[in-house]
TrEMBL record:
Family annotation (InterPro entries): MULE_transposase_dom, Transposase_mutator
Lineage, uppermost ranks: Eukaryota, Metazoa, Ecdysozoa, Arthropoda, Hexapoda
Domain called MULE transposase: residue spans: 1-64
Any GO BP annotation: DNA transposition
PROSITE patterns with a match to the protein in the record: TRANSPOSASE_MUTATOR (PS01007)
Keyword DNA-binding belongs to the record: yes
Protein name, per record: MULE transposase domain-containing protein
Keyword DNA-binding attached: yes
Species of the source: Aphis gossypii (Cotton aphid)
A Pfam family that the UniProt record links to this protein: MULE
Length: 191
């Protein structure tokens, strides 16, 4: 895990940080999966500096984005989801989409698109709330998460592969202790 205090959130700033990290941490970047939020400048910088690494969007940030969109004034759906159990179920179904594979190689395991279509079919069965979900599902969920971000970017189906023990933590720990040895000691002010 790498923490940095930056002066902004531009792709250029991220590229500078990642080039520095790449020079300081000698890792097998072809075996590294980098997990981030869905900030486009950050994603572009990762693809530029770490082309051999895989990138994975963070499930927490996916859920956070969905909730923020529901709470936005333009959506106005938050109160509906809180008050209506059918709307709440649809909301939970959207949050569960990343648990499906981005693509399906066989007919037994549905893909994320199959899951999206199942949600649409469920919404159509409930005409009293269907009109409220139209823009949310087609413009936001499909338009942003399926077309712009692509399902491969935020599926968590393969997370077990990502969580295998990797050496990055040891490398960061060594870097941290190396930095401690470089800093002057000022008595017991840290106690």
């Amino acid at each position: 895990m790498v923490y940095a205090i930056l002066t902004g959130k531009t792709e250029e700033i991220y590229v500078g940080l990642f080039k520095y990290v790449r020079n300081v941490l000698p890792l097998q970047y072809d075996k590294l999966t980098i997990i981030t939020d869905f900030e486009l400048g950050l994603i572009n910088a990762i693809r530029l500096v770490f082309p051999e690494s895989s990138h994975q969007g963070c499930y927490f940030h996916y859920c956070q984005s969905i909730v923020r969109h529901l709470r936005s004034k333009e959506s106005g759906m938050y109160n509906l989801v809180k008050a209506n159990p059918i709307a709440a179920r649809i909301f939970r179904m959207v949050l569960a989409l990343p648990y499906l594979p981005p693509n399906s190689n066989n007919n037994r395991i549905p893909s994320m698109l199959d899951g999206f279509n199942s949600i649409i079919m469920y919404i159509v069965q409930h005409t009293e709330i269907a009109e409220y979900f139209h823009d949310f599902m087609y413009q936001y969920v499909f338009g942003y998460w399926f077309v712009r971000m692509r399902p491969e970017a935020y599926t968590i189906l393969y997370l077990t592969r990502i969580l295998e023990p990797i050496t990055i933590w040891r490398a960061i720990t060594q870097l941290f202790y190396g930095l401690l040895n470089l800093t002057p000691k000022y008595g017991s002010s840290w106690v």
